[in-house]
Specification:
The chain is an all-alpha fold. Helices cover 85% and strands 0% of the residues. The protein has eight helices and no strands. Helix 4 packs antiparallel against helix 5 and helix 5 runs antiparallel to helix 6. The protein is globular, with a radius of gyration of 23 Å. 28% of the residues are buried.
């Protein structure tokens, strides 16, 4: 009987501790979501300093919140021109979601703005290839239609083509 009582007490204690842990995780997720929403509101209104503060708090509460990394990277890139921090956030995003072609594209823009043309080219290629791959999985459209959709979604596609042609010209391949 004592063994049964001891087992029962241990199980109750385990359940209390487990329930508290689950409640704590749920609270952190809700808190991360609230910080994220507030950060996006500040971003949308142009208050980038507050946006950065709330988005960072959201990431600290839940480091898997891809959208918080995305908006924070945009703040670093657009407002602060801190391309290194934006690159770190975009890299975090693509490490969690290899199909996020827009983050590859913006990563390329950050590298390009830093003057790192090799990494910019690689990131732009990843963006274009990822987007085309996603389209090929979801459609049976001809390649020309897919290329036109890429141009619409990635506005600097033509600039990239010019850059590649310039690179080939400088290498003596054209």
């Amino acid at each position: 009987m004592r063994i049964l009582k001891a087992f029962f007490i241990v199980m109750v204690l385990f359940l209390v501790v487990f329930q508290n842990a689950l409640f704590s995780i749920e609270k952190e997720v809700n808190q991360a979501s609230a910080y994220f929403e507030q950060g996006v509101d500040y971003y949308s209104s142009g208050d980038y300093e507050q946006a950065l503060s709330y988005l960072t708090a959201a990431i600290q509460a839940d480091n898997t919140l891809i959208d918080a990394y995305y908006y924070r990277a945009r703040v670093y890139m657009e407002y602060y021109k801190d391309y290194d921090k934006a690159i770190a956030d975009f890299n975090k995003i693509v490490s969690m979601d290899q199909t996020d072609f827009e983050s590859y594209y913006l990563l390329g823009a950050c590298y390009f703005n830093k003057g790192d043309k090799n990494n910019a080219q690689a990131s732009y290629n990843n963006a274009i290839n990822t987007y085309i791959s996603l389209l090929n999985q979801n459609t049976s459209q001809p390649a020309n239609d897919i290329t036109n959709q890429v141009k619409q979604r990635l506005p600097y596609y033509d600039v990239l083509s010019i850059y590649y042609m310039d690179l080939l010209w400088n290498l003596g391949l054209l």
